[in-house]
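Exercise 7b. Backbone tokens:
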């Protein structure tokens, strides 16, 4: 590597060509960044004490191993954003000189021949800077003063116009502006193919993560090591179509999510969303015998599935309708599992009917849990690992049994629990209320009702100041009925006549134009035949709709014989179940202290579970976050987190990394009496929050 500080304009001079490799991201500087550069140049132009202004480094390497052409072609590894922006500024200065009709120290001819083109060269070697894709054609059109291409780069054109506008509105002397540009300094870093690793240098230059997304880093990693011809082929065949599919990666977080889900499928664990690039490199390193094209082709194929899931673009209308329903529930955590199922469907390992059954099963599992208030913080691990439990010879059946057998915080609420919770739930303030009512309305309908133009109607009005007519209908305990059933499923329906219905008495709501008796909606069937709307009718309708709901969101009907085939057979080594009685140290004051702590730990969240092990008591969410080892004079606690991450102002924690102690984790401390319980909970909360945040 050769690095030297140099004047930017001198750096551009001479016959040479800078090429932005195809794997680099598109030009992306915003007006805000251009404004900062403009202000820096203005300040340098006006201040004689400023001898130079540093704008960053430009890192490049020779394009070919052997340079045949007389024009050195240099691949820019880092610095394309500032190079492009300064080129646009020079182009704007050129245009401003032309528009002024005046003579300046710098001429248009010099700007063009010194900084923008290689005047003595022709064809591909004529231009000094070659960008990628639409950026390239747009910049060349501006330099050649030709009409913009039909699909031009908005960012290139807008930033060129930004500088033109700034020059015009500021009224700056163009000699002064050129003087400011002439003060710009860069670090010229030339890499040696034999000794320098461009990828490692690229990573170190972008180690802050502020400039490049995970998508940028992965693309560069995949393509940078290849020769330009291979880069071109793989980019055009796989990466560019994938970019288009993700909206040109204008929202790179979506691609980051896809890569996390893809790696979850491939690696069997969930990468941190901020660490996708590092995990991708680890994944590629494991596939030593697999060429990069095969890996990229696989990513490309899975990206199709992901886009179908995220944007519901599946051509099969029946499948796509279910994907829309799943998307309504916003359960992105199911994507790793659904990606794998999608791949099995694509490769004809399952039929269309089986694929639909699996999608509906996932939908029911997620929705029933939401209605029953089952904590969701474990769902990502459930969906990340569930495919390992499936017998793919009996794909649907085995998945049904697996979900039915899950218990506690992973459970699939059965019909009894689902009906009980649905009839009493505050549906009006439920996030998925529109989805719920839409699915109930369209159950077994071929002529689908789009409910977006309908509004939620409370049959018994929301107004607490009930009219005499409503009080009489509801009875002497009307206030309690109103409080209990107002937002329940039995009292809610859909209408386009919400303002007309308002707080009117029930019979008026029933008989008016557009009222319940006049409604074409199935949700309103039966209401138009009632003489009275009271507690009993609300309960009756709620039960009726709940019975319909167990058909819409079905629970697997499995015989005990089928279920027993999947249950683990006893092998003589069944786990011993331990209880509090297996800890003789827990007596007297130690027992009281333990009871106080266990109650507070279990109250941290409804997902917390207590398990008595042989040597300690574990408290878990998705895994242990604190373990308690009872001792005669104290309780010894282990927190499942790195010692470096614990915030311990009192410095009572001990680093037990690799010491092989009972319990899980690297942080250990003791609690001897109730006065220490508050600080203990302060420490325990940190471990709990860490595991919850990782979900």
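Sequence design result:
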């Amino acid at each position: 590597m050769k690095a030297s500080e140099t004047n930017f304009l001198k750096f551009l001079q001479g016959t040479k060509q800078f090429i932005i490799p195809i794997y680099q991201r598109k030009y992306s500087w915003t007006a805000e960044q251009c404004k900062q550069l403009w202000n820096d140049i203005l300040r340098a132009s006006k201040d004689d004490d400023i001898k130079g202004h540093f704008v960053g480094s430009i890192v490049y390497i020779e394009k070919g191993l052997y340079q045949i052409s007389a024009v050195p072609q240099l691949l820019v590894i880092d610095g394309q954003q500032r190079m492009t922006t300064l080129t646009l500024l020079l182009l704007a200065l050129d245009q401003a000189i032309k528009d002024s009709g005046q003579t300046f120290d710098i001429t248009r001819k010099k700007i063009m021949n010194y900084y923008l083109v290689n005047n003595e060269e022709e064809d591909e070697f004529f231009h000094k800077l070659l960008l990628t894709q639409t950026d390239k054609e747009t910049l060349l059109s501006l330099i050649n003063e030709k009409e913009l291409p039909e699909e031009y780069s908005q960012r290139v054109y807008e930033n060129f116009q930004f500088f033109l506008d700034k020059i015009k509105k500021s009224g700056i002397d163009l000699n002064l502006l050129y003087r400011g540009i002439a003060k710009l300094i860069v670090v010229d870093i030339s890499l040696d193919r034999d000794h320098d690793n461009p990828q490692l240098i690229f990573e170190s230059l972008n180690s802050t993560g502020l400039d490049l997304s995970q998508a940028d880093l992965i693309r560069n990693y995949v393509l940078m090591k290849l020769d330009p011809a291979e880069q071109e082929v793989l980019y055009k065949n796989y990466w560019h179509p994938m970019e288009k599919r993700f909206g040109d990666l204008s929202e790179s977080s979506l691609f980051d999510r896809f890569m996390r889900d893809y790696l979850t499928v491939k690696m069997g664990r969930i990468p941190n969303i901020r660490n996708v690039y590092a995990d991708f490199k680890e994944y590629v390193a494991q596939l030593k015998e697999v060429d990069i094209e095969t890996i990229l082709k696989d990513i490309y194929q899975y990206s199709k599935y992901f886009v179908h899931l995220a944007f519901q673009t599946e051509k099969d209308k029946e499948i796509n309708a279910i994907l829309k329903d799943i998307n309504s529930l916003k359960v992105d955590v199911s994507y790793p599992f659904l990606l794998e199922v999608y791949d099995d469907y694509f490769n004809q390992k399952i039929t269309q009917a089986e694929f639909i059954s699996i999608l509906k099963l996932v939908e029911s599992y997620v929705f029933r849990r939401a209605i029953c208030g089952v904590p969701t913080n474990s769902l990502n691990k459930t969906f990340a690992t569930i495919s390992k439990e499936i017998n793919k010879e009996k794909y649907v059946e085995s998945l049904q049994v697996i979900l039915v057998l899950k218990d506690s915080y992973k459970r699939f609420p059965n019909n009894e629990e689902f009906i009980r919770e649905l009839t009493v739930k505050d549906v009006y303030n439920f996030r998925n209320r529109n989805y719920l009512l839409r699915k109930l309305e369209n159950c077994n309908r071929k002529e689908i009702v789009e409910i977006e133009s309908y509004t939620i109607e409370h049959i018994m009005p929301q107004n607490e100041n009930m009219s005499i007519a409503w009080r009489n209908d509801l009875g002497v305990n009307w206030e309690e009925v109103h409080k209990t059933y107002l937002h329940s499923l039995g009292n809610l329906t859909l209408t386009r006549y919400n303002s007309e219905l308002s707080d009117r008495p029930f019979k008026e709501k029933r008989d008016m134009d557009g009222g319940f008796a006049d409604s074409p909606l199935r949700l309103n069937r039966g209401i138009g035949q009632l003489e009275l709307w009271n507690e009993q009718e609300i309960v009756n309708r709620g039960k009726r709709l709940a019975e319909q709901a167990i058909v819409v969101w079905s629970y697997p009907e499995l015989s005990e014989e089928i279920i027993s085939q999947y249950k683990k057979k006893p092998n003589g080594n069944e786990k011993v179940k331990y209880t509090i009685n297996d800890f003789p140290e827990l007596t007297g004051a130690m027992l009281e202290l333990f009871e106080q702590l266990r109650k507070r730990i279990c109250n941290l969240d409804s997902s917390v579970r207590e398990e008595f092990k042989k040597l300690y008591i574990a408290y878990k969410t998705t895994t242990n976050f604190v373990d308690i080892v009872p001792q005669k004079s104290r309780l010894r606690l282990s927190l499942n987190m790195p010692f470096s991450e614990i915030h311990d102002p009192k410095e009572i924690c001990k680093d037990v990394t690799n010491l092989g102690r009972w319990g899980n984790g690297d942080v250990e401390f003791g609690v001897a009496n109730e006065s220490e319980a508050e600080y203990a909970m302060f420490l325990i909360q940190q471990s709990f929050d860490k595991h919850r945040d990782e979900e």
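Instructor comment: The mean pLDDT is 89. The first helix runs from residue 8 to 12.
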